[in-house]
């Protein structure tokens, strides 16, 4: 059941009505209906993995209590490491085992020994990386005595399994979501209205921008050997907007529908393609994951408190782990490594926190510099996306090589019977809308909101891509 | 909550109004279109006179060289549509009759396409803009399982077949951007294709008593049109060629020209002859059926 499917369009209003009109008596009944809805939502993907989700929830719930109640440090550590090991164990088996087995086999074969890896025939449970990270942050926070353990299983389950964030985030923190779950929610019209606007804008990003770009990006990436330089360049730009529209569109819809239930989720994107350097990009892209790695990996590793060497090491560690989090493939690791390389000069020059304020432009030379820095950051990001999108690192290098060696910049007719340049105007229009609303969460609120809503709905109906249905990219992670 | 429901109701009303308005606008544009493809060309045309009309799939579109018929004095147009099935061929013929075309002969390519009665989404969708303006189209689609959605939900058809009749196609119609579909009197010549797959396996294909083929026969009979039904050539390396014999057992009136042109030098892919092959084949057809 996808957010942009007809079945979800029936599911969401049904849950909304039950939540506010039938189960509205106490916070427990509110939480109960959301939990039931979340489990139903998850079982629509694959009911078998519901057991995994419930087990994972119970594990962290129970170990959290045991950590808090432990009388000795040894017991505290035992329950903590048990939770970490089981959580990462599940992630390892379902997501990474085959990758490690195949890579090990390849390595051994490289030494002349013939081995065939013992691969598992398992499918990746949808959302496992997200709900595992929810649980991990909760247990770590209890272990570090930042929060108290949650004793109400329903409340805790809702924190882990809340359907808007269950399959693709944002990765919530117990400190942020649990306090909201602990109180009865009252209906807030303004918040619900904002939520509807955010859902509509999320849909625009998904079906108008991401899926349209995907049609072109796929035609270019899947046939990159026959594409000319212009098409290859456009392919990277299209993929950049595909993945942004897809993931941030999903996040917008998740945040928006959560507002309908009176719950605020963490913001996940903040106009990342207007970043002036890579450090700023990572403060604006997939924020809930970046801050998760910052708080639970970078800082425990020593963060920036040590010398420059430690900073560099820790930066590389979090980028490589972040890449690996996305998927068990060397391409994601390469993507993480490239981003770490981009980060390196900023670290060395101590400029990684230089662009903290919202970007503004005026009619002067310094604004030209800002524009150039935004364009160059976007170009670097696109270059890294090639590794993210390619099937192998070799293919990514080949793709990049062809951009420079082909030297043809003529419009090209793609396999899907479209010209490669056809959606440039759509992307420019999208950039302009995003630019004008960069201080807001979505562009619809404010003056003329009804005009803007009408235009957005019109874009969804008329410009959306529907016949060639595309899943949300981040569901696979 | 009351305010929220009113707010939501307004959004629903806006959405519904947009669906209706966009449906009207798109349909209006398609009603003025006549140079994008064979369907809009026929739909928006007046009565015409033809000695020969060619119908069928790409194996008609790429195989019958309409200009060769013209050279022999036969006014011809190739209405074969790549990817089309007999569902679309039948409907196109109905529209021609409805527009009082005078047709002496219909050459129908009926071979591989006899094996299914499904509509070909990519081609059939091109009729859908006119579904509210033509009883013939409405009736033809009425047996389709999603007819109610296509007919009654405004704009549904433009969303469902967005790659074929969606915004992009509507926009090109608006600016009167031409396609090549109507060039060469509808015939689309294929060249050499070095990467073509010169193999085909027809062993799993089974001819049906095809409803739409029967319809075409009836239309021709009712309108005194001479119907010539032919099976067209396949490349050398084709398995299951007895399929053509099975077709003959079902429909003895269908002429088997499967082996009329032999040799892969005449083919662009296994099921499609190149221009050289098509010319050779067309010459045989003209000689056999028109004695010219």
UniProtKB/TrEMBL annotation, chain A:
* Membrane-topology descriptor: Multi-pass membrane protein
Which is a Pfam family this sequence falls into?
MBOAT
Reply yes or no: does the keyword Cytoplasm apply: no
As for family, the record states:
Belongs to the membrane-bound acyltransferase family.
- Organism encoding this protein: Flavobacterium ranwuense
Keywords, ordered alphabetically: Acyltransferase, Cell membrane, Membrane, Transferase, Transmembrane, Transmembrane helix
The name this protein goes by in its record: MBOAT family protein
Compartments reported by the entry: Cell membrane
The UniProt transmembrane annotation reads 48-67, 79-98, 118-140, 332-349, 370-388, 419-437, 449-467
From TrEMBL, chain B:
Top-rank taxon of the source lineage equals: Bacteria
Name under which the protein is recorded = SGNH/GDSL hydrolase family protein
